[in-house]
Amino acid sequence: MTLNIRDYGWNDTFAAAKESFQHEGFVPARVLVEQKNAYRLASESGELHGELSGKLRFEALSRIDLPAVGDWVLVDARPEEGKATIHAVLPRSSFFSRKSAGTVPEQQIIASNIDTVFLVSALNRDFNLRRMERYLVMAYESGANPVFVLTKADLSEDAADKKRQVEEIAFGVPVHVVSAFEQSGIEELAPYLGAGKTVVLLGSSGAGKSTLTNVLLGAEVQVVSHVREDDDRGRHTTTHRELFPLPSGALLIDTPGMRELQLWEASESNDHGFPDIEALARTCRFNDCSHQSEPGCAVQAAIEGGELDEARFASYQKLLRELAFMERKGNKVLEKAARDKWKKVTQQHKKTKY
Ligand SMILES: Nc1nc2c(ncn2[C@@H]2O[C@H](COP(=O)(O)OP(=O)(O)OP(=O)(O)O)[C@@H](O)[C@H]2O)c(=O)[nH]1
Ligand SMILES: [Zn+2]
């Protein structure tokens, strides 16, 4: 079985990056699944089981240097055995990462080379603008383009109003209202789901990500079952992180991996942004207190009194700055800022010897 890697998102940028490696005989492959340093890859010679070369394994300075779902890697392919040895990871155009817990916190790639991230939120009582802001910051840091998808429109009587509220916090970011149950609004997502485009769904548990995934998958059930005819392993049984093709030709990364990001959400923001700090701020003497050196500042008093962690206050301010920046500059500049941020990481990544 052969396949066309362009169907898996291969493009001229990756092709140019490959050229700079000048390794005779290595071919590109995309990581579909990663489990404990074993990989399933899509290559021109079909799906292969990949293993890391000894050199890549030992020269990796951290986990960020190792392949993750969505990565393009260069491999020595042995199609007759169904196997490949992974020798290098091509620079990532975007990625989600998280810091893994442990004595030495380490950055770990959750998913990479993503074009669009659907920030999925339900329009019921889970609706939470502060949380959406956090997700948006995370999306910008990834380098992927954020799109808000507000789900369960059938449960909401003020969907249009909520849509407007989201548009206000997320200047220039598209917002779409859908209902998986009523199959409404789904067609608005088509522009992001073109052939070779990679999408991930991100959002809290219960937001409707799996249901939406099924709708996107089921849009052309015929095509799906056709694809499966010569694949008796059944490619959509997902208990792990996996990249798989949608009938539209787009690639969806699904998602215990994205659930891991929710841990980030839970630990960093407590689900409600910074309610403790916001409560303190309401008791400052001045309504427009900047919590720096104003008299009667309850926030500074709490820091001095040891009730508020200074680092937590610093990250609150960082969030406010980032959001203010977004609102001021609009989407274009933000995209550049996000891009510069990940470029730096990618450059660090490049310094590693292959
Ligand atoms: N009314 C309504 N309910 C929905 C809709 N989409 C999903 N649900 C329900 O919302 C619940 C959660 O949906 P899931 O798709 O499992 O949510 P999820 O985001 O994948 O959740 P996790 O798998 O925990 O991350 C289920 O009971 C769904 O039936 C919708 O469009 N309308
Ligand atoms: Zn104050």
UniProtKB/TrEMBL annotation:
Its cofactor is Zn(2+). Its EC number is 3.6.1.-. CDD domains: YjeQ_EngC. Its main location: cytoplasm. Gene3D superfamilies: P-loop containing nucleotide triphosphate hydrolases (3.40.50.300), Probable gtpase engc, domain 3 (1.10.40.50). GO terms for biological process: ribosomal small subunit biogenesis. Zn(2+) binds at C284, C289, H291, C297. Residues 106-261 form the CP-type G domain. It comes from the Bacteria. It is found in: Cytoplasm. GO terms for cellular component: cytoplasm. Belongs to the TRAFAC class YlqF/YawG GTPase family. RsgA subfamily. This is Small ribosomal subunit biogenesis GTPase RsgA. The gene is rsgA.
